[in-house]
Amino acid sequence: MLITPSRQEYLYSLQNFSSEHHTTEFLINKIDEIITKIGPNKIGAIVSDNASNISAARAAISLKYPKIMNLRCIAHCFNLISQDIIKIPFAEKLLRRCNIVVTFFKVSHIAASLLRNTIEKKNIEGGTLKTYVKTRWTTTYDCINSVLRCKEALNYVILIIFNILHLLLKNNY
Description:
Layout (H helix, E strand, L loop, with lengths): L1 E2 L5 E2 L13 H15 L6 E4 L3 H13 L4 E4 L1 H13 L2 H19 L1 H13 L16 H12 L1 H20 L3
Parallel strand pairs: 3-4
Antiparallel strand pairs: 1-2
Helix pairs in contact: 1-2, 4-5, 4-6, 5-7
């Protein structure tokens, strides 16, 4: 991905390296090929996660091309920080419980339909429940916030489901 001085983004190259070993040397060679094609004076920085092989490759490229900055990806850093926060027992328990609620409404078509209708009737903005995905740090917030935002609708739907179950049990179903 290339970003121009005017902040426009361009996909320069997309290649499948799934059958290759991502050694430091392999990464250095691939990065160097791209730098050579574009021209080292047109590149200001290389940004990646901080896996040891890519970190070493970025460092080697920075030595070869001192004007090219060696940067860690801030989004990857946020993801690592959020994963550390989620390891705190309170946060882990909260997220696990939110996932239980979200999963229930994802697998139950009737409950999901009731929830969507209730959200619509109560004019709750932001849509329905959001799923947590471990590799996407923003989904931690999205999942927990969606449960909190939909609290009134969730309580209403749970009350409806409870009443239906109560009637079924009362009538010996």
